[in-house]
Write a structure and sequence with these properties.
Structural class: alpha/beta
Largest sheet: 10 strands, antiparallel
GO biological process, one term: carbohydrate metabolic process
Keywords: Glycosidase, Hydrolase, Signal
GO molecular function, one term: beta-N-acetylhexosaminidase activity
CATH architecture of the largest domain: Alpha-Beta Barrel
Protein name: Beta-N-acetylhexosaminidase
CATH topology of the largest domain: TIM Barrel
Number of helices: 14
Organism: Paraflavitalea soli
Number of strands: 36
Number of domains: 3
Length: 690
Amino acid sequence: MIGRKLSILNIFLLLTIGSQAQKNSQPLSSAVNPAPFVIPALREWSGASGNFVLHNKARLVADPAFAPVLLPVANTFSADLKAGPLRQAFAIKTGKPRPGDVYFTLHPEDTTIKKEGYRLTIGEVITIEAREPVGALWATRSLLQVLEQDSAYRHIPRGQAIDYPQYAVRGFVLDCGRKFFSIDFLRQYVQFMSYYKMNDFHLHLNDNGFKDFFGGNWDSTYAAFRLENNTYPGLTAKDGSYTKKEFIELQQLARSYGVTIVPEIDVPAHSLAFTKAVPAIGSKTYGMDHLDLDNPLTYTVIDQVFKEYLEGPNPVFIGKEVHIGTDEYSKKEAEQFRAFTDHYIRLVEGYGKKVRMWGALTHAQGKTPVKAENVTMNWWYNGYADPKKMMELGYDGISTPDGWLYIVPAAGYYYDYLNTKRLYEKWTPNMIGDQTFPESDPLVRGGAFAVWNDHVGNGITEKDVHHRVFPAMQVLAKKMWNGADSSIPYQTFLEKSKQLGEGPGLNMMGRIHSKDSLVYSYKNILRLKGGNSFIQTPLQGIGYGYTVAFSIYPGEDNPDNAVLFSSPDAVVKLKQLSTGRLGFSREGYDYTFDYTVPVKQWSHITITGDHKGTSLYVNGVLKERLEGGKHRFANGKEMAKVQTLFFPLQYIGDPQHAFTGRLGNIKVFNCILTGDKINALAQVIPNSIH
C-alpha cells in the first residue's frame, strides 16, 4: 500500500514538472551541457544544449583587423587538427564567419579578459576572443582536448567558457647537461607542454656527474655542455649537442606554441665542462667542478661564452630571459660568489635580457651587493634562499621546491615519480618549502618542476624520463593554471586524465589502443636473409605494459649484433655484441639476457616490459627478469642500472643488420601477460621450416 501511494506521488510530480517545463518553453529532453573535462580545468563555464560539429568544410577565420597576429594561431591550430585523428587540414581565411566556422578575434582593451585568458563561445560558430594572441592559442588547446575525448573527434559541447591562468610562469626544468635529449625530443616537448598550457621550458644546458662514480677523478668524471660553441670548440659535448641553428629553430617553434625557452648556462659550480675545455679556470681548492673566482681568466672565458649566444642583431638566445645558474658554490667564497653573480646579471642585462638564477644568497651571505631589481630566482630550497628575505631584497621568484617537485630518476632520493596525489590535493605555487604566500602575491611569478639526471650512465632513456614527467605534467598544469581551485577529486581527475595524450601527432608514451589487448599480429612465417631484410609495420614501438611474443628459427652463422626488431628507439638482437646471446640496445646502453637462441630449430620467445624492467620467457617459462641491477664501483658506491625496453616495432628485421632465419606467429599485446596466457602462446610453434 505504501508503494502504491509513492507511485501515485511520483506520477503527480512528473506531471507537475512537465507542466512547468512547458510553461518555460523548455522540453524535458533539453539538457544543459556540463563543463567539458580539460587539463587545466576551465575557470568558468556556462553550459548550453547540443553540440557544435566540426564538419569537413569548416573554416578557421581570423578577424581582418588582427590578421597578422591571429593567422599564425590559426595555422598552428590547423596543423594540430591535421596531425590528430581527423588527418585533415582546414581552410584558413580572414573575414566574417559563417555557421560551422571557428572565428578568432582580439579585444586588446577588454580588461574583463585577463592576461593569457580567453572567452570561448560555442554555438553555431565557435568564437575565440582574447586580449592577446597567446590567449587565442590556449583556447585552441582546450578545443583539441575536447575533440580528443570524442570518438568521432568532431563534437564540442555548446556553451561559453572564460578561462585564464592563476600564475604567469608554468614551467618545467630539464637537465640536458647530464643526459642528452635529442632536438626532436625537445621539439615534441614544446608541443606537449603547450597542449597543457605549460608555457616555460627551462633547459639546463651544462652539468657534470659526481666524481665518486668516476673513480674519484675529475679528469674521468662525465661533463657536458650541449650547445655548439665557436670560441671554445672543445667545450661542446661530443656525445650529443645542439647546433645554433637547431636551437634557434627550437625557440621559434616554441614561440608559435606559446612556450618560452629559457636557456641556462650554469656557473660557477656544476662547471666541469668549462674547466675541461680551459683547465686553468678550475678551482684547485674546491674541485674542478667549481670555477676559480680569483682568476681573471675565469671571467674572460665565461664572458665570451655568454657573449657568443647574446650579441649581435640575431642572437642565439632569442627569448627575453636567460638563466645564469649560480647554485651550490662553496659558502667559504661567499663574497667572490656574490661578485661573480652580480657581474653576470649585469652582463646579460647589457644585452637586453632579463636574468634568472638559482636562489643561493641566504647560503652565500655577505656584504657584496647583488642586483635584485627585475631579477628572478628559482626558489628551490629555503636554506639556500629564504623566499621572504629575498622578496624583501626585491627579487621575485619561481616556486621550485625540491621537496615537492624534483624528479631524480632511479637515484634513491628526492622522487623517482612525483607524488601526484599529494601535489593535486595539497600544493600550489604559493607554497615554497615551509613558507606560504597569498596566491595573488605578484612576486611569486609561478612554479616549475624539474628532472635532474644526477646519476650519469644509469641507463635512463628519453622514454623513461617521459614516463615520469607525463603524469606530473598533467597534474601540475592544473595546479599552475588553476591554483588552489580543485573542482573535482583527485581520483576522478586521474581517471579522466587517461583519456588525454601528449597532443596531436604525439605518442611518446607508446600507447596503442584497440578493441582488445592484441594490437598487432603477423601470423605467417617471415623469412629474413640478413643485411637489408625487413618488413615495416604500422607501429614504431609500444610503451611500458606490453607483451611481444614470436616463434623464431635462426639460421647458422648469424653475425654479432644480428637484429630481430628495430626502430629509432631501440633494437632487439639475436646476438648482443660478441656474447652470442639474446639482448637489446637503446640510447647507447646494451643489455644481454642469459640465453642463447638455438639455431636450426623453432623456439618460442615472449618479452614483457614495464617501467621497472624487462622479462624474457622461453617456450612459456620465465628465463630471466632484468630489473634492479646495480653498477658497483671500486670505492663501494652503487648506482641503479635501469633495464627497461620500449619495444621497437617499426621494422621486423632491419634495413642494415637483419638476422638470417625465420620469424612467425608474432603477436603484440598492450598489456603484460603472465602464467597460463604466456604458456598458451608458446604452444603455437611451427612444426616445420616450410
